[in-house]
Amino acid sequence: MLDSRLVQQTNRLGLELFSQLRKEEAGNLSLSPYSIGTAMALAYNGSDAETSEELGTLLGYAPSEREQLNADHSGMMELLNHTGDGIQLSLANSVWTRKELSLRKDYLQTLQNQYSAEHRTTDLAGAQGVEDINKWVADNTAHKIKDILREPPGNNAVAVLVNAVYFKAGWKKEFNKEKTKPAAFHPAAGPAVQVDMMQQSGSYLYAQSEDWQAVKLPYGEGQMDMLVILPAADFSLEELQTQLKDGAFPGKQGFGERSGEIRLPRFQSGYGTDLKQAVQALGVQHAFDPRTGNFSRMADIPDPIYISRIVHQSWIEVNERGTEAAASTLIDTRAGSAPPVDGPFEMIVDRPFFYAVEDAQTGLWLFLGEIEDPTVTK
């Protein structure tokens, strides 16, 4: 049986990393909590001792619960691989090693059996490794992410763990292009910008408080949706993030069917970063230390194995027809409540907002992000 904890912990990890990234840079941000959580789970299975304790805390599963974590991921992949008509969702995992280095058979078996991970060998110290891994990611993200690696992992690379997610879906009810009009959007800083504002009316799952409005726009036959949260004019995205992390935002039961009008800008957003510092800020230290990193469950070699970087890239486009999104996470390991409301609502998304592409059944966030300025695509 699928443990709801996987959904809660994955979404929480996404929000916590998001908060760390917001401290480092402003502007449009996007990431895939599911991609990051899955890639970290691949690494977690190879860890031991203090490294394992820290990664377990990050993922919300103690080292003694690794089998439960793996079973939950396997069950989630099975669920997500049957999203129904109108939704294209591709999930893929891979582990890359040098031909002359063998990983532990039980580690590889876990990744293959529970995560459907492919095991491939390549030259991790040369250009061929970069070409092979980049091609695999491109092939598994409809070529939306082409260059997750820009340089070889190096001579000390033990394994490269990669997750890729690709999503494409049409709205259950498309926006009429003829109703899309130029409109003003007001970033948190600077003058207003002109955007292409989509518009439609209908009945939606909707919630609101004095701090925000939220609506769920379904894809396909309703198996997945985009959650759009618009903070009130005097309520910031940072304050909204705090409410989301603290669990103050309502779950499924807080949303009710309500008629209204939604205006949402077309947008496209691409983002890439090394998550190493953000993950370290969340308490993971040993995993990145060349002296104390312990991934002995991954391979039998004399030198400590550690994580040198966690590369994450995401891309999303939202228009009248629907949404297309992709994300990939690469881990390089080396040795050495809503009040009652009446009447139709009006939700005009003309200032910075939060969004998440979620599985409607479980509430798992495949992608999340915030748009400070829809006219900025990178």
TrEMBL record:
<dbReference type="InterPro" id="IPR036186">
    <property type="entry name" value="Serpin_sf"/>
</dbReference>
<dbReference type="InterPro" id="IPR042185">
    <property type="entry name" value="Serpin_sf_2"/>
</dbReference>
<protein>
    <submittedName>
        <fullName>Serine protease inhibitor</fullName>
    </submittedName>
</protein>
<dbReference type="InterPro" id="IPR000215">
    <property type="entry name" value="Serpin_fam"/>
</dbReference>
<dbReference type="GO" id="GO:0004867">
    <property type="term" value="F:serine-type endopeptidase inhibitor activity"/>
</dbReference>
<feature type="domain" description="Serpin">
    <location>
        <begin position="15"/>
        <end position="374"/>
    </location>
</feature>
<dbReference type="Pfam" id="PF00079">
    <property type="entry name" value="Serpin"/>
</dbReference>
<dbReference type="InterPro" id="IPR042178">
    <property type="entry name" value="Serpin_sf_1"/>
</dbReference>
<dbReference type="GO" id="GO:0005615">
    <property type="term" value="C:extracellular space"/>
</dbReference>
<dbReference type="InterPro" id="IPR023795">
    <property type="entry name" value="Serpin_CS"/>
</dbReference>
<dbReference type="InterPro" id="IPR023796">
    <property type="entry name" value="Serpin_dom"/>
</dbReference>
<comment type="similarity">
    <text>Belongs to the serpin family.</text>
</comment>
